[in-house]
Every structure is written in structure tokens, then in C-alpha cells.
Amino acid sequence: MNKAKHTNGKHEALWYLKNARQLIKQSPIEDNRYTDIKYVREACGTAYLAILKAIDERLLSKGFTEKEMPQSVEEYRSVLAKHISIHNGKLLGQFSTLYKELHIAGYYRGLIEEVNVLKEIFKTAGTFILRLEK
Asked: What is the CATH number of the domain that holds 43?
């Protein structure tokens, strides 16, 4: 996949998530644990950006302008609750979980080492992105 085909419109978030999955493949694995946390952190950061990009894309499709895009996690929670979660109440809770897992535990603190745990988190991120596209 080249970037030009997937950075416009609703597919950009999925493109970011695909990049996150490619990044994590660079980390060696021993005993079902990633041994190079640098790649885990980069992958988690990129996957979290995919989540934010998906929300931004949804807001733009609802008529928001670039200037009106959220600038903090609190603002993302607020717009989700007010403009998006009214149609799917699970999205706000899922966003909060993904924020804690991807951004805080994975990227910021580098606490995720277990291969299966990260695979599940990425799966949840993909599901979240696809729900936003509906």
C-alpha cells in the first residue's frame, strides 16, 4: 500500500494502524515477549495516532473544520460524547481504554511486552476505527 492511496478520506486511520503493525514486526520476540521495547513504543504511538485520525475523519465528515479539531484527550472525549457516542455508547469507553493501553502504557511508559496482549489491543483499535466509519 502506498501512502498516496490511503491518506485521503476514511482510510488514513487504517493506514496508520497498518504501519503500527509493521513497526512491531521489527522487534525480536523471545518467550512470547517483545525484547526491543523501542519498537513497541513506536507501534503503540502510531496506533494511537490511528485512533485520533479516525475520530478526526469522522468529525470532518460531520462538518467540523480543521480549526475545530480537538487538541487534547479531554477534548477528544468531549466530542466523542457529544457528537459521536450518542449513536454508539461503547465508543467513549473504548476510546478511554485505548488511550490508557496504547498511549499511556504502550507508548509513554513502555509497559507492554506480551505479544498476545499487544495483538489484542491492535485488534480492538481496528474495531474502534471501523465502528467510527459507520
From this structure: 1.20.120.330
Q: Which three cell numbers stand for residue 65?
A: 473544520
- Of residues 47, 23, 19, the one with CA closest to residue 105: 47
User: Residue 31 class from Cβ within 10 Å (0-12 exposed, 13-18 middle, 19+ buried)?
Assistant: exposed
pLDDT tens-place string over residues 35-86: 999 999 999 999 999 999 999 999 999 999 999 999 999 999 999 998 887 6
Q: Is the pTM of this model over 0.85?
A: yes
Write down the H helix ranges in the chain.
3-6, 12-24, 37-61, 73-79, 90-98, 115-132
Distance CA 74, CA 19 (A): 26
Residue range(s) defining the domain that contains residue 32: 3-132
Residue 47 and residue 17 in contact, taking contact as beta carbons nearer than 8 Å: yes
Triad 26, 31, 35: Cα angle to 5°:
35
Number of domains in the chain: 1
